[in-house]
Task: structure prediction
Amino acid sequence: MQGTHRIGASKPFSTRAAPGPPTDRSNVKYCSVKKLVQTLRNIWSIEDLRSKIIVTVGLTLVYRVGTFIVLPGIDPNKLSALSGNAQGGALGLIDAFSGGAFSQASILALGIMPYISASIFMQLATILVPQFQKVQKEGASGQKKINQWTRYITVLVTFVQAYAYVTYLRGMGKDAIIDSFSGYFWLTTPIILTAGTLFVMWLGEKITDKGLGNGTSLIIMLGILARLPRSIRDEWNAKLAQGSGGILIFVIEVAVFVAINLGLVLLIQGTRKVPVNYAKQIVGNRQFGGARQFLPLKVNASGVMPIIFAQAIMFLPTIFANFDSTKGIAKLFSDPRDYVHMIVYGVIVVGFTFLYTALIFNPKQIADDLKRNNGFIPGVKPGQPTADYIGTVMDRITLPGAFLLALVGIFPGFAQRLGITQGFASFFGGTSLLIMVQVILDTLQQVETQLLMRQYDGLMKSGRISGRQGAVSNAVI
Result:
């Protein structure tokens, strides 16, 4: 009979699609916001993590308050000359790392820079001097000695830089020095600046021990981020003065800024995974090894060090800017918008990337460790052939990483050429942006690790944040 359907008979074919889940974008946004709120609740529910966050925020606020306390004997209303002079070059870099404390003649004007200089010296010494290498290999006791020596060197470096800063204040900011205090200024200022640097160093160590870790990195990042809102405001005012077209240009600039940050994240996290197999071992009734793992080789293993070394070298000719015969060369090396400056700067960054990677990366030691643990790279003999293979792979991935790092270094010069203000252009690349992105990634990784240890979901929907442990402590210091 027509219109009847027997039990067990197949149903008539239909071309209508089955109803799927609702695709309302508002529901997707609601789920994303709900997941974010739940993640924040999970973070706050972990007592240890909550305590670390509170300590970190509290100590960083103390540091920021200290950057606004002016040195004794200084009239804060007459510091405009310092602010205008500390816009570029070495002084601009110091002012950026100190969060503007340098141009404000603060008691924390030198910031953490002397400690960074001392730490760089000690790091190079442990690589180049055999006696320091022996001390470093002593384990925890050796590291404790190196840290103590670093503090002593920090005091010496701070005293030298403090007297240089006094000379700078007497020259550029002499109008800001109170006449009745000028006789004591040369004596009290170095002592206060040294105490301020040691206090900042202590804050960094406390953040490392009691907070989220990498205290020195966080302090530097805080100083860099402190300039970002003002730089964006100045850029907005500059473009607003150009009319409606300027607003569109500002939106494009912000979009490019975000794209550069995303690209820098890829550069920092980029790795080449070399497969490693481990031979099977039977101990009693149990079997060990036999699993395949990967040896991650960083595309940017040298971190921010090549850019710092390149900037230091480019700043040297500016010392002779007062001589008539060298004014042209000094101006060339101090102007990031000049194409010759960009080429020289990029070549130095590429060269130092290979040099510093060779200093900190030892393929022979990695090959020996693999051999000692019964590990081998498929198709490569253990021992020296493995070391040669790892060294070749590292050279191949370092080359594009070095060129990308050089490109990041010269981006601020291009940005200034395109009409972006100097303050906002500094965030389009260079040391400031590289340190900022590295430290943010590392801090997020610290939080995510705490969540995953307690069976919570991580910060990312898929995958994991692979930041650099100690972004500045290891890459810079």
Notes: Residues 42-226 form a domain with the Preprotein translocase SecY subunit fold (CATH 1.10.3370.10).
